[in-house]
Every structure is written in structure tokens, then in C-alpha cells.
Amino acid sequence: MYARERMEVSSSTSPAEETTADTVVVGVFEGEQAAQAPLQALLDSGEAKRKAGSLALTHIDGRRFLLAGLGSREDFDAEQARVAAAVAARRAIELGSQSLSWDAPAGADERIIGALVEGTVLASYRFDRYRTHDEDEPGPTLEQLTVCADADRGAAVARAVVIGEAVNAARVLQDTPANDMTPSDLAARATELAAANPNLEVKVEGREEIIARGMGAFAAVAQGTAQEPALITLRYSGADGSGPVLGFVGKAVTFDSGGISIKPAATMDEMKFDMSGGAAVIEAVGAIARLGLPVRLVAVVGATENLIGERAVKPGDIVRTMSGLTIEINNTDAEGRLVLADCLAHAVNEGAERLVDLATLTGAIVIALGSTYAGMMSNDDAWAAEVQAAADATGELVWRMPLHPEFKKLVKGKYADLNNAPERGKGGAITAAELLARFAGETPWAHLDIAGTAWDLGRSYAAKGGSGFGVRLLVELASAHS
Ligand code: BES
Ligand code: ZN
Ligand code: ZN
Fold this sequence. Notes:
Elements: E1 8-12, E2 23-28, H1 37-44, E3 55-60, E4 63-69, H2 78-94, E5 99-103, H3 110-123, E6 144-148, H4 154-175, H5 183-195, E7 200-205, H6 207-212, H7 216-222, E8 230-237, E9 246-256, H8 276-291, E10 296-306, E11 317-320, E12 326-329, H9 336-349, E13 354-359, H10 363-369, E14 374-378, H11 381-394, E15 398-400, H12 405-410, E16 418-419, H13 428-440, E17 445-449, H14 471-480
Parallel strand pairs: 1-6, 2-4, 2-5, 5-6, 9-10, 9-13, 12-16, 13-17, 14-15
Antiparallel strand pairs: 3-4, 7-8, 8-10, 11-12, 14-17
Bound molecules: ligand BES and zinc ion (2 copies).
Residues 256, 258, 333, 335 line the site of one zinc ion.
């Protein structure tokens, strides 16, 4: 079900035009010349431009060449390489290309090479499982990529393939509609990954176990649906794994109707994406295991639907969390923080010493940061700096927002310890994080609100649909730790 045709990716130290690929991509920086005369002629005529993102097509000796503008050499970084590769790949696919060979810029380091691979693999993603009409039948896609560099970059290429495939796998989980991506389906994917790696273990618990553990907040969200919820706990222990145990936590509400505090109809269909945090966590852990990174980690994914019905939790209901704190549920649409409250506490119980959670948690973060940054809230400056560094390295950007005792007051309950829906319009993304903070306790924790970046990211390598946001960041975070 999850297996997709894989692109065959390799690296070479031979010149790109010596490969057998049907299409060769050559980059050119501002103020620089193209090595091949026909490409230079294209630049001279003005048909090709050096501006980042521009692309021109020509044929040399019967072979297709794409000349990609790379902008200024000083500004060229991994994200620009990812974008350039995606722009080239998309055009190549449109033109019916099946094999691509990238003439990497001279001196390109491992990050640039990796980004060229990621950009190509991500741009080749498509979700067509449900299309049956002939006119919608997509043509062939890229089968082969060779990255030609002036040094042996085999390791960087191999790593980027694993990461790119993990991001695309997360996108499949996201794009699959809620009728086919239930909590049990997510659990099945986690189980499949664990079965493929001896260092990865998984435990899946259902409604009874969630209740038995005292996870009253998670259970309250899950009580409105007939779908069995899943508490998915993954544990990975790489060879020579030392350093603090990493704890990844993901919100996986496979459909968020809002519950009794129902959402408006207009964009409710998008709430199949409300499991994006969980998808990113599952696939990141899969990639970390495939890469064999020397880290120890525990990952917790809370998966459930948030529906309406005679059993559904009601506004005003008060629940007791696993940690003992009580929460007044004043809005059943603020369900993510309820699921995460118990999952964060569970991750700490399971030995997590550094926490990062990913969640499509609030509409407020979309208003604040759009699709450019995920919001980050943290109780620990050093840990926040590590997460920030992983974000900067991968282009999965985060912007830190503050916590403050005044916000903390807003999450105090009228009849219980906490309330899940503070006054509207007052720092909605932050007050959500303030509630979560109570469940991270003393453990260094960073919360990433990915509501604006999880889908329709608008970048050339992930324009529409699920973006897999967070997979690359989490893998980078684990790499930096190893
Ligand atoms: N899943 C939503 C947040 C969301 C909204 C993600 C739009 C992506 C796009 C979340 O469960 C939610 O509904 N949050 C409420 C909280 C409020 C009721 C306190 C929100 O943000 O409006
Ligand atoms: Zn909601
Ligand atoms: Zn939600």
C-alpha cells in the first residue's frame, strides 16, 4: 500500500553530459558564463536568465539541456539548490523526461548535493491513487537521477534519498483521505516501519489501554468516534546511541470536524491533514532508523478522529489527564492540545529527556506566520537553539514565539486546573503552547505549531497537498545529536 516506484539515484564524478540521461541540467550563477557554447549563446540571446528560479530549454546533439539560473553565488544555499532542482525536475517531467543528470556547481558541498537530490525526489511526488479517468492519467515520471559533482558525494546522495523518500511517504499519509487513513492505518504504517528495522520497536494501544493509562484528555477526544484510536509508541536505539533520549511527539487527528463545537463547512475537508504532525514523526523515525543514526529516541503519536455524536465530549466537560491535572473542555475543537497533553506526559514517562512536538494546533499560527514559518514555543533556550539550527539547516523554518506568565493565566480553568480554549483573539498559538508546557514539565521541550506549513506550502518542491513538513527537521535534529 505504501510502496511507491522509487527513483534510482546515483552520483558520479564524470561530467553530466557523459551520462546517458535524456536530460542534462546545468546551473549558472549571476555574472558567470556557461561552459558549453550553445548554452552560453542562450544566455547571450537573453532567452536564458541567471536569476534564481529561471529555466531555459535547448537541445545539443539531440539531447535535452535545461539551463537553470542559480542567482548569485554568495546567496546560493541548500534551500536555493532544492528549489532549483525542483523547478528543473518539474519541467523535465512535463517534457516527458525519464532520466536526469545534474551538473552540480563546482565545489558544491554535501548539503548542496543533498538538496539537489531532495528537490528532485520531492518534485517527483504525486498523489494519484484515486484517479481513474484517462484524461487525468499522468505520463511517465522521472525514473533516474545522476548527480555529477567534482568530488565523490555518494554518501550525501544516499542520505538525501532516504530523507526525500521519507518526506514523500509522510505526504502519502497526509494526502490519503480520512476514510482510508484512520488511526489504525497510521498504526499499521508505524508497524510496517518497525518490522523493517531490528532497532525499531513499536507498541500500539487502543481505546481501552488509553483509558486504563488514565489519559482522560486523549480519551475524551476519542470518545466521539467509532474508529479505534491509537496511541503509537516507537522506540529506536541506534548502535552506539548515547546522549539524551530524544522524544518526538506528534498530533495525529485523522479528521478534525471540531466535534460539538463544529467547524464551518468551507474548509473542513482540509482537516484530513490534522494528522500531519504524527505523519512527520512516524516517517522521520523511519528515516533515522534506515540511516542507522547513533541516537536513542522515543516517539509518541496520538491518533484519533474528532467527531460529533451521542458519545462525543461536550463543551464544559471536565477531564483528568494522566499527569493528574484537570482540564475544562470549553471548546471541543481545541482537541489537539488535549491529545498532546497526555502524549507529552507519556513520552516523559517513557524516558524522553528532550521533547519536540509537532502539531497542526492553531489557526492563530497561520495568521501570525503564514506558510513560511512554523511557530516554535519552548521552555529551554539551549534546546530551542538546537531545534532552530535544524530548521535553518533544512529550510523547514521556525520562528520562536514567547511564553509568559500572563499567557499562563489565560489557560487557568474556571472550574478545573486548566481550560482548553482561552479567550479568542489573544495569542491563540501561544496559549495553546502554555497548556502543553504544563505537561512537558521540567523536560526541555520545543513545540512546533505546523498548522500553516503542513500542507499547501507553496514551495516549488511541495506546492500543493501535504508537505511532509518536519521530517527533514527531525532527521537533522537527530543527526546533529549523533
Ligand atoms: N486543527 C485545528 C487547527 C487548524 C486550523 C489547523 C486551521 C490548520 C488550519 C485545531 O484543532 C483547532 O481547531 N484549533 C482551534 C482552537 C480554538 C478553538 C481555541 C483554532 O485554532 O481555532
Ligand atoms: Zn480542532
Ligand atoms: Zn485539530
